[in-house]
Amino acid sequence: MEISVIGAGYVGASVAACFADLGHDAAVVDIDEERVAAINDGRSPIHEPGLDERVARTAGDRLVASTAYDPVPESDLTFLAVQTPSNEDGSIDTSVAEAAAEMTGEALADADADDHAVVVKSTVIPGTTADLLGPAVADAAGLTVGETLHVGVNPEFQREGTAVADFLDPDKLVFGHDDDPAVADLLHEAYEPLRAALDHEVPVVDTGTREAEMIKYANNAFLASKVSLANELGNICKRYGVDSYEVTRAIGLDDRIGASFLRSGVGWGGSCFPKDADALIAAARAADYEPELLQAAVNVNDRQPGLLLDLLDEHVDAAGERVAVLGLSFKPGTDDVRNSRAIPVIEGLRERGATVVGYDPVATENMRAVFPDAEYADSAAAALDGARAAVVVTDWDEFAALDAEFDAMAEPVVVDGRRIVERREGLTYEGLTW
Q: What pathway or pathways are given for this protein in its record (predicted)?
């Protein structure tokens, strides 16, 4: 198939490269010239495990990138994979998606295309595709939705740090198409090579566009709430001297609960959980419903960094002291610092008068854009050297191997927000929820 993808971010770049690697011809459209140049040079525009080799393997052949929308009318199917950031009230800002939809339509009009399918991968509130984005494409293209323009929704369930692996071995595929057989057939055809490459069946959910949009939000809301419940239980366990990890290991054996997303700690961040939770809360309130449980999940998450710093206060007066922050990305495997729990931790340390030195294997430059005047180290050992204390915010594997490096600290005090460091003699160690 000929596939065009609008947006070369974490979702768009990985989707396009994976489709190309599966044998389709994929063209990525993005306004960022550096990202476009990187893809055409055979380099991944973002840090994402597994993406570099797929871009290198397909670039210039089955994978191309452009700042113009010319590839759109040449393709069988166009995926909209652009950002939908939050407004101040938590609702989604659809302006980028609307602009992309309009430019997609204009490209179809300029090429005098008489039939096309556009599928929304961006995370949007139910009704956005049918009421806003589909009509935006249709109006600009001079096509009719359901007749000459086929509109669908195919939400992504790709986690940063494992986006390629998640695409290539999904738990499910959701095709929203409002009974339009043309877009349904194209989606099934696009994913057929992926399904054929696996040694097991992938469930396919054929549903309406509104249901597909909501499935994405419901998925993330459930997982975010599960993490916050694990954190709430962990906070209680800490106060009773109970190892919360022993507790969640046991309850995770119950198949009604499951073991995933039960690791308590400093909380969730990134571009999805915070944005999607806020958007769903705002959408519920716009429909005159107060989502108390979901709001509570957000409140628990927002509280975790403060509890981490409270534990530090029990051992160290941070004023005037050097404190190492280990981990700056919101999770291991990515350089993304959006809504990273390191941000409120650094802010709290600065409020206490500490001299903060941060370290992360890949996210330093992105965090430097947030805190340009902070100190950053080239290694965990350099960050710990002479530090009065350290806080662990991201569970990068290399932090589990730290041992003698802690001895370079003035008086080794470690507050671990991710249960990645081993408790040992000679180390004052506090786990956030254990």
A: Nucleotide-sugar biosynthesis; UDP-alpha-D-glucuronate biosynthesis; UDP-alpha-D-glucuronate from UDP-alpha-D-glucose: step 1/1
pLDDT digits 0-9 by tens, 153-169: 999 999 999 999 999 99
Are the C-beta atoms of 12 and 39 separated by less than 8 Å? no
Q: Please indicate whether residue 237 is annotated as part of the active site.
A: no
Cβ–Cβ under 8 Å, residues 339 and 269:
yes
Confirm or deny that 104 is annotated as ligand binding: no
Residue 357 Rama label (left phi>0; alpha psi -120 to 50; beta)? beta
* Residues linked to residue 207 through DSSP beta bridges, in sequence order: 176
Annotated ligand binding at 406? The verdict is no
Residue range 315-331, pLDDT digits in tens: 999 999 999 999 999 99
Domains of the chain by start residue, with CATH: 2-207 (3.40.50.720), 239-434 (3.40.50.720)
Residue type, 375: E
Residue appearing with tokens 């001895």: 407
Q: What is the pLDDT of residues 2-39, one digit of tens each?
A: 999 999 999 999 999 999 999 999 999 999 999 999 99
Q: How far apart are CA 366 and CA 369, in angstroms?
A: 5
Please, are residues 360 and 329 in contact by the beta-carbon 8 Å criterion?
yes
Exactly one of 100, 136, 230, 272 is catalytic; which is it? 272
Q: How far apart are CA 120 and CA 368, in angstroms?
A: 33
Q: How many Cβ atoms from other residues are within 10 Å of residue 308's Cβ?
A: 25
Residue 275 to residues 133, 305, 326, 369, 403: CA-CA distances in angstroms? 20, 18, 25, 20, 37
- How many CA within 13 A on the CB side of residue 420? 22
- Residue 303 annotated as binding site: no
**Three-point CA angle 370, 67, 140, nearest 5°:** 110
- Sign of the CA dihedral 210, 211, 212, 214? positive
Q: How many CA atoms lie within 13 A of 95 on its CB side?
A: 5
Q: Residue 298: phi, psi to the nearest 5?
A: -65, -45
Residue 393: closest CA among 271, 223, 269 = 269
Q: Is 256 annotated as a binding residue?
A: no
Phi, then psi, of 247 in degrees rounded to 5: -65, -50
DSSP symbol at 128: H
